[in-house]
Design goal:
heterodimer; A: mainly alpha; Glutathione S-transferase Yfyf (Class Pi), Chain A, domain 2; 4-stranded mixed beta sheet; 62% helix; B: mainly beta; 16-stranded antiparallel beta sheet; 3-stranded mixed beta sheet; 5 helices; 9% helix
Chain lengths: 275, 469
Amino acid sequence: MSLAAEAFVSQIAAAEPWPENAMLYQPLREDQILLSDCASSLAVQAYLRMLGLPVRVHCRANAEYMSPSGKVPFIHVGNQVVSELGPIVQFTRAKGHSLSDGLDDVQRAEMKAYMELVNNMLLTAELYIQWCDENTAAEITRPRYSSPYSWPLNHILAYQKQWEVRRKMNAIGWAGKSLEQVYEDVSQCCQALSQRLGTQPFFFNKQPTELDALVFGHLFTILTTRLTTDELSEKVKSYSNLLSFCRRIEQTYFESQDRDSQSGASDYSKGPSLM
Amino acid sequence: MGMVHARSMDPVPMHGRDLGVHPDDLEVVEAQQETKKEVLENKDIVVQHVSIEGLGRTKEDYLGYEIADVFNAKNLIDVMKKSHEARMKLLRLGIFKEVQVLIDISEGDDALPNGLDVTFEVAEMKRVTGSYNTMVGNNEGSMVLGVKLPNMFGRGEKLTFQFSYGTKETSYGLSFFKPQPGYYERNLALNLYKVTGQFPWSSLKETDRGVSTELNFPLWMTDHTLKWEGVWRELSCLARSASFAVREESGHTLKSALSHTMTIDTRNSAILPRKGALLRINQELAGYTGGDTSFLKEDFELQLNKPFLWGSVLSASLWGGMIFPIGGQPVSIADRFYLGGPTSVRGFGMYCIGPQSEGDYLGGDAYWAGGLHLYTPLPFRTTRGGFADLFRTHFFLNAGNLCNLNYGEGPHAHLQKLAECIRWSYGAGIILRLGNIARLELNYCIPMGVQSGDRICDGVQFGAGIRFL
């Protein structure tokens, strides 16, 4: 499709209201999804919940390949398919739903900077631990990633993915890092977030933004996912304001909403609770 | 009694350097030369030695089976006939560039007065040969670069590597072929390949990487192929605008399938037959030997040809197939049947019949298609043979249907479903035969029985195909 045609389609999409049957696709929750994908998916879910846009979560073994960008999660709204948080934020804005309209230019720039920090540090650290720490890769990542496939495809796909991630790590200069250095990076990132948050309920005072959704997605997933060691979650747990931030968002946007709607099971894909 | 030097039917200049006889005593006999027949055919002879000269890496035991029959010859005509047959057999093995036959009277201590020696002079193919050619398949063209190692271990084994760069797909394949000594039609082939195909009618791109083993053997009048194939298939959307139904099929699957094909082909030509019939029955069982795809697929093809008035040919064909999922898992879009196009149900777009979603054709679980053709030679042609023989005009009537089946229903309901909403078309056109593998058709078609969602080609339709209705 040409750029003009794509722009035209998104114009059309903007005119249509958010439908009731919007879907979010992610890998299988129990056996397949990885820490990093789970965090990204939770961030998108939190974002949509903050906007009050309904979305049903569908788990598919081939979600990664269904996604137009090859990354999960992606949403299917009307006849549009949009993947990852950034484009989804733009897409909802085109439809007239936004969390960051109340911010001024300086705040918006700051928000973007912090979102970049989370993506560059937390997401990359998650990928590093999953695929570059041989213990985690062998015990958790490869078996989970390849669980829907039969022999010998399971091995081929898992190693292919591992090779791809390691090549990316090489490109961004993370390949030479040790696990300790990566934990230290996570800790520094958390410290920066913790300082920015301070005692406020959200990063930009009273109203949540997409930054809150992104930070929640990652921290909550790190806190509730069992890995080979607890070291990663311990790093996050040492920042008490981040912990209570996660609890607050969980309570406000997941538990209370689910109590209200009484239809928890199908819409709810957050995994274990912090309580 | 004279010495005889025969050269079979090969028009290559003869050279008697190994004969050790005077050229004056030589008598050249052409096999077709009927005038000498009376003189020679009654003389009893004994073939004492049959030898092959010019062998390099070829093992002699492999060729023994091909030339053994020459020993059974009882007279000279017989010797020449059998030598000629043996020569054709040797050439068919695909390991010799050239085969010449020398027939000489026996020499040496044990030579009988009526003894003959037959010598095959062969020139082996090079160890490695390369090729470059272009191919035309179902509506696409490609450039093929190939490397061939004929007769690799000296017993007819062949290793082939092909790299093809096409308008729609790029692929490579490595195959190893081994015939049974003395029974060339019974052979084994191992293949390793990667094929990428783009299917715009489904907005689908498929990359297959696979291995297969194939056993071919004739049985009475039929040819059989037993095959196991293990293939890793990667499906993806061709464009961002692909329908969600196609997007849902994206991802990796592993198919391990056993298949059997039986063919009876009595036609005189594969592309523009004048007479004879073709029956091909194919069945495929996937999932029994592993993988994550399970189904049973049955498919047949029937074609009858009959010469009709003034050199025209009447032809009827029928295709049909059905796929049964096993274990409740739906059948992948890559395994389902597709119908329509310039060489199947004419007048409809390529594979554009049946279930579809947002303009992407999803294929069906069952199909049938039938065709009636009257082929005639080009009008106003002056001579038989030549360029005009590559062409035919034809009048056709095609019909077919493709649909999904509800497996809860019985066979009667299935038949009823296939009999509803039949697509059909009629028209006329010109056919060009391309070698003996494909044909080009330019037709004027009038499609009928069009259902909503079908893409039609009302009027002139052009296309090429290997398989045709």
